[in-house]
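Honest question from a wet-lab person: if I give you the sequences of every part of a complex, can you actually get the arrangement of the whole thing, not just the pieces? Trying it with mine:
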Amino acid sequence: MSLLIYNSLSGEKEEFVPVHPGRVGMYVCGPTVYGPCHIGHARSVVVFDVIARYLRIKGYDVKYVRNFTDVDDKIINRAAETGLSAAEVAEKYIAEFYRDMDALFVQRATVEPRATEHISDIIRVIQLLVDKGVAYESGGDVFFSVDRFPEYGKLSGRRLEEMDAGARIEVDKRKKNPFDFVLWKAEKPGEPSWDSPWGRGRPGWHIECSAMSTHYLGETFDIHGGGRDLLFPHHENEIAQSEAAFGRQFVRYWVHNGFVRIDKEKMSKSLNNFKTVKEILDSYDPEAVRLFLLSKHYRSPVDFSQASMDQSNDSGDGSDLWDRFCQAMDDDFNTARGIAVLFEAAREINRALDSGTNEDRCKAMEARETMVRIGSVLGLFNVSAREHLERQKDAVARETHIDSAKIDSMVAQRAAARKARDFATADRIRDQLAGLGVVLEDLPDGTTIWKFTGKG
RNA sequence: GGCGGCAUAGCCAAGUGGUAAGGCAUCGGUCUGCAAAACCGACAUUCUCCGGUUCAAAUCCGGAUGCCGCCUCCA
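Yes, you can. This is the full assembly:
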């Protein structure tokens, strides 16, 4: 069974063939750490987490590199605003990133490098470009010359002539072409800086990804990912730099995830309409958030709303199911179709358990194994159903200030009434509980569990 | 101005030539003291609209309308 991946470079689904058989090198652009993570970051991170997990379960030896951009204008500005150093700002938001992504059960990448740890690699690539005459220095800044890279625009599908340069920002007069971009920025007072052949300064944004990805994965590697918004100019520039410097194809498969939208509009820090991961996790179960993020194909936009999240919050022969899951995932990582298989597995388990014959019990075991396996790819079922229920109770109780001990005692009173066959009293208590948004479930063994419905 | 994407039931969402997955909601049934959960069944003759290609189209082509994105930092 071959794996198809949509390649932004060709605009088509292509059969996945790694550079080295059995091994996959994958680089995904991580966050610039100047503020809290929003649900858009989470989508990208979760999507590529699932892709890495799936490639591994298919048997590939995956080297997954995800960077942190820890030196940048925005970090420096943030430092100036808060009185912290740039390094302290970066450190703070890297810690928040881990807190949020760990909560979402995101696995760590193989390598998680930071730009500031690779200054010498960055300088080496810039030097190569200067030596080849593809980059030029001007007043301590170094620019990449897009005119020296004829294939510029091949990823984003635009030609330099078609683009409306300077429509929204003023063009730096020192640039030979308005689309030339900065590789190295000359030092300004109070900013972090490093020595370089062009004087003290710091790297531009795009160059760090070329330097770090090739450092860990080689000059040609398999998969490079990130949000759609990075396609231009960031990834276009990465291709230009890397291919100009090393003289060979940079990346085989470019993978871009779609946006999270709010009210049909892109969510972004600049539009200031973002929801942070932290605030969402205050109200919703982490696995529900994952399920929500994976409920649509990764390339399509997904609309965040209270209603759509509420919906995800309510959810809950074996090898055949696994094959069908793989078919979905082999088709450009179609998690939405994969989730359908998951629901079918759940139904199969329940059906087999209901019928209760030994043969069916075996089937249920098989289906359960498949379900756990699918869950391990999607990063679901990290906590038991029982623990899940307890967490949900705690969260709702905290939010609504309902005392769960009191509910427990009401449930016990009802149990006593039922035992005495005083169903009128039992039902009255149940109605009272319903008024508090509590629903009861009497189990066959005579015990009763309860949960909040969310509808008071 | 240039480039690109999307439009599928009340809602969410798969489906790139062969006759509409899955979930939520709703309505019946089994089970239950009654419920809940679970299971069984019902739920788009039709895929924004108009043309075209084809034996056959939600799927391909042309056009219209609507929504969104990129061309500036952004996952």
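Two things worth pointing out. The CA atoms of residues 322 and 373 of chain A lie 8 Å apart. Residues 335-355 of chain A form the longest helix (21 residues).
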